[in-house]
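---------- Forwarded message ----------

FYI, see the Cupin domain-containing protein record below. Original note from H. follows.
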Amino acid sequence: MDLNDLAAEFRADDLYQRKGQIARTLVHTPDLRVVIIALAGDRTIAEHHASATVTIHCLSGRLRLQLPDRQVELAAGNLLPLGRDLPHDVHALEDSVFVLTLGTT
């Protein structure tokens, strides 16, 4: 699968145009989940946590994550691992696309 093609599809999607956010699960197996997410600039995914270790790989745009003890900015090409149960939010500083990978619990 071509993630750049998916990102372009997302930006043209009516749901993204209306809501500023769209996601699609790319892989869902008993031991792994991979999701691609497009988030419009100045949109935020509210604070949450995952019960597994995750990685966030920014494909395009810029993201800011608020962690309990610091803020982290991700630009295109950056990858951030997060430990299980770590509270965080995700804010798009500009139109962004990222891949979320979740391990098993």
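H. also flagged this: Residues 3-102 form a domain with the Jelly Rolls fold (CATH 2.60.120.10).
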